Structures are given as structure tokens and as C-alpha cells.
């Protein structure tokens, strides 16, 4: 076997294992962000509430809604808020996102990746950003991470006919880099309206960026996961239960963390059974 064939087979093996990003020239301390956030923030305690969102709708709306942990004074953001607020259906929102030209990511992406699954589902997953497979196919979570997510959801009786899925950014960042705070800020108005229109019983942010954005905190995902929290926006009649969840891509790289993911899946299953 030639050196070229060996290199090609090694590359294929890495892609199948979920290794789809290059290592930077300088090391990145992934724990520093979580430690810094831990010093500045405390965990958001989950509150005891009546079973079922229907019962909570009769309660008064919380006086304060946590502010998003992203920049808001970014050119184009006000236009995004105006467009999102005018949408009264998921179809209108998708058309608004596809027509939105203020986010530079759209210029380098192949497709707008809006959503997949059942818009009437009780469970809504929100990931970070599309990857290469998602960009090609125009659907979220269709690569190795998506296949693992489908298997995990199936273990508690869910599939794409019984859950809904999207991202906090609708276009693939070049090279699968993390989206910037400005890019998240430009997409956030559509994401917030998306959640309001779906109005799920359970919201599951996948990974740190999604959890931080939706909850308005700076804690790392390893400190957020496993603890029920709530999401509230001005147009929601009742808060939504939130379970921050380890991103499937992380689980592919760190199989030992799957035991934590399984624990969280069981908590989600119990919550669904409870009502």
C-alpha cells in the first residue's frame, strides 16, 4: 500500500470518528473559560413548579427575563429583531431567515440551515452552528454528530417525528470555527422567535455556546449540564424547562462522558412522563 493510500485511509478514519477540525498553532485551554465563568456566576437554581406547562400558563410572567449573553449593539441586529417580531408562523420565520443578508456567514455558506423535525413536538434541541455535512444538505445534525444524537434520542423513545432541532446560527462558519458573538447576536432574534413559535415543553441546548446564549450565563457546559433550568422570553406565556446537554461532537471525542449524557437523557425521559 502506498503512502498516499495510507494517508487517505487515515483521513477517512478520522472523519468517521468525528475529527473534522484542524488543531491550531497555539494551544487553547478549554477549562479556563469554565473556571472564569464559575468565579463570576453562580448556577441558576431550578424552581419547583406545577406539573405541565399548561398549569404554569395561569401564573404571572416573571418580572425579569435574563439578558442574552451576546452583544446587542451590532449593525443589522435591530433589523433582525424587527423581521423576527413580524413573523407569526415558522414558515414566515424561515422565509425571513433565508432572506436575511446582514450576517456575513451567509456569503460563505452553501445553504441556510434552518431546522428539521416536527414543529409541534414537545422537545426542541438547539445546537451551535452547521458543519460541513449540514451545509451541504441544508439540514441540522446530519453528520456523525447528528447520527449519534438520533441514537441517543431513540434510547428514550424520540426521533425526528417527535422532536424539533435547529441551531443558534443558521450558516456554517468557515472551517467549522466557533461563531463569533456578533454572528450569534445577528441570529439571536430569529432563534428567540423560533423558540416562541415552537413553544416546546422542554428545550435542550447542545453544547456550551448554545447553553450560554439561551440562558444568558457564562458557565461552561460541564457545570451547566444535568441541572434543570428555565428559559423565558417576552412573548412566551410560560417559562420552558431547559436541560443543557453535552454536544454530540464532544461525546464522539470523549466517550467517557457518555455516562453523564445518559443520566441527562433519563432526566429528560422522566420529565416527559411527568407531564
Describe the structure.
This protein has helices at 3-16, 30-40, 53-56, 77-85, 90-99, 105-108, 132-137, 144-154, 181-198, 208-215, 221-224, 248-253, 258-274, and strands at residues 116-117, 123-127, 163-167, 202-205, 229-231, 240-242. The protein is globular and about 45 Å long. It is of the alpha/beta class and 275 residues long. Helix content is 44%, strand content 8%. α4 packs parallel to α9 (181-198). The protein has a six-stranded mixed β-sheet, sandwiched between helices.
Strand order of the largest sheet: 1-3-2-4-6-5
Q: Report low-confidence residues grouped into runs of 5 or more.
A: 36-51, 57-71
Span between termini? 58 Å
Count of helical segments? Answer: 13
The total strand number stands at: 6
Q: Please write the string of helix (H) and strand (E) elements.
A: HHHHHHEEHHEHEHHEEHH
* Biggest beta sheet attributes: 6 strands, mixed
Q: Which structural class do you get from the secondary structure elements?
A: alpha/beta
Q: What is the CA-based Rg, rounded?
A: 19 Å
Q: So what's the overall shape?
A: globular
Portion in helices: 40-55%
Tell me the β content.
5-15%
- Kindly report the average pLDDT value: 84
Amino acid at each position: 500500500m502506498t503512502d498516499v493510500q495510507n494517508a487517505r485511509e487515515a483521513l477517512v478514519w478520522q472523519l468517521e470518528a468525528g475529527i473534522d477540525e484542524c488543531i491550531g498553532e497555539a494551544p487553547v485551554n478549554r477549562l479556563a473559560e469554565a473556571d472564569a465563568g464559575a468565579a463570576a456566576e453562580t448556577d441558576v437554581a431550578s424552581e419547583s413548579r406545577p406539573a405541565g406547562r399548561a398549569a404554569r400558563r395561569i401564573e404571572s410572567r416573571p418580572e425579569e427575563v435574563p439578558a442574552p449573553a451576546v452583544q446587542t449593539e451590532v449593525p443589522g441586529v435591530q433589523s433582525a429583531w424587527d423581521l423576527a417580531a413580524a413573523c407569526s408562523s415558522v414558515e414566515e420565520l424561515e422565509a425571513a431567515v433565508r432572506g436575511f443578508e446582514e450576517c456575513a456567514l451567509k456569503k460563505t455558506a452553501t445553504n441556510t440551515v434552518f431546522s428539521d423535525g416536527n414543529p409541534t413536538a414537545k422537545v426542541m434541541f438547539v445546537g451551535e452552528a452547521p458543519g460541513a455535512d449540514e451545509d451541504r444538505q441544508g439540514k441540522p445534525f446530519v453528520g456523525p454528530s447528528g447520527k449519534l444524537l438520533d441514537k441517543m434520542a431513540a434510547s428514550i423513545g424520540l426521533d425526528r417525528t417527535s422532536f424539533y432541532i435547529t441551531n443558534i446560527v443558521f450558516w456554517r462558519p468557515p472551517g467549522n470555527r466557533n461563531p463569533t458573538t456578533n454572528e450569534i447576536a445577528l441570529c439571536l432574534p430569529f432563534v428567540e422567535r423560533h423558540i416562541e413559535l415552537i413553544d416546546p415543553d422542554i428545550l435542550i441546548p447542545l453544547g456550551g455556546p448554545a447553553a450560554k446564549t439561551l440562558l444568558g450565563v457564562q458557565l461552561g457546559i460541564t457545570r451547566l449540564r444535568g441541572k434543570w433550568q428555565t428559559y423565558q422570553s417576552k412573548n412566551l406565556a410560560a417559562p420552558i424547562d431547559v436541560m443543557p446537554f453535552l454536544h454530540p461532537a464532544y461525546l464522539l471525542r470523549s466517550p467517557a462522558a457518555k455516562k453523564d449524557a445518559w443520566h441527562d437523557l433519563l432526566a429528560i425521559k422522566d420529565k416527559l412522563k411527568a407531564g
